[in-house]
Write a structure and sequence with these properties.
Strand order of the largest sheet: 1-4-5-7-8-9-10-12
Shape: elongated
Structural class: alpha+beta
Mean pLDDT: 89
Number of helices: 5
Largest sheet: 8 strands, antiparallel, barrel
Low-confidence stretches: 1-20
Number of strands: 12
Distance between the termini: 28 Å
Oligomer: single chain
């Protein structure tokens, strides 16, 4: 009986622990940035301070952005974005969900990378839109991957009912205009969960 149990367990023990593991986003090493253009000429870059996410052993990836953590380097503008644009009291997070080719990642040697399209759904401000973003995946160690956008994803405000918020920001700041689309780039580090 013990020999039979050992035979049955052997294939499981031979599987790489990375295949069985779930992965957790490392907020300290990850970033999501988006740009804005005001008055037709002034380009600015913004980011978020609080990100979370995971990738399951089956390749289900989820990334959440705490919209209240927006950082534009100007406190009053942060407050206006959270209340007038994102309306965080109703819509506190943005969520991106996608399926990742987990077999490709698991077979990747440490120190190597690959390019792939990342197709998923972005939920923001009560709306959900499908996106395909080209990314580079780099395996930095046995227990860490970095996923970086190779081209910015352009997010149209109209797709997420954000045009009224943009107009409110424009009016309160006394601007002639704010471009109703933003390029979004990211660099995300996922680490194997401790104990996986």
């Amino acid at each position: 009986m013990n020999r039979l149990a050992a035979i049955c367990l052997l294939p499981i023990l031979l599987v790489s622990p990375c295949v069985l593991a779930d992965w957790q986003l490392d907020n300290n090493l990850s970033s999501i940035t988006f740009g804005s253009v005001k008055n037709g000429a002034v380009v600015e870059s913004h980011t978020f301070g609080q990100l979370s996410g995971s990738v399951t052993a089956a390749g289900k990836a989820t990334v959440e952005i705490n919209l209240a953590s927006v950082d534009t380097a100007i406190a009053i503008r942060d407050e206006r974005m959270t209340s007038l644009l994102f309306e965080v009291s109703q819509f506190p997070v943005a969520r991106f969900e996608a399926d990742i080719a987990i077999d490709t990642l698991n077979s990747m040697p440490v120190g190597e990378g690959t390019h792939m399209p990342l197709t998923g759904s972005l939920s923001l401000h009560g709306k959900t839109v499908k996106l395909t973003i080209p990314v580079t995946v780099f395996r930095g160690s046995n227990d860490a991957y970095q996923i970086t956008s190779t081209r910015a994803a352009v997010i149209a405000a109209a797709d997420f009912d954000l045009l009224p918020g943009i107009e409110a920001l424009r009016a309160i700041a006394g601007l002639t205009g704010i471009t109703p689309a933003s390029p979004v780039s990211f660099s995300l580090v996922f680490r194997q969960k401790t104990g996986s």
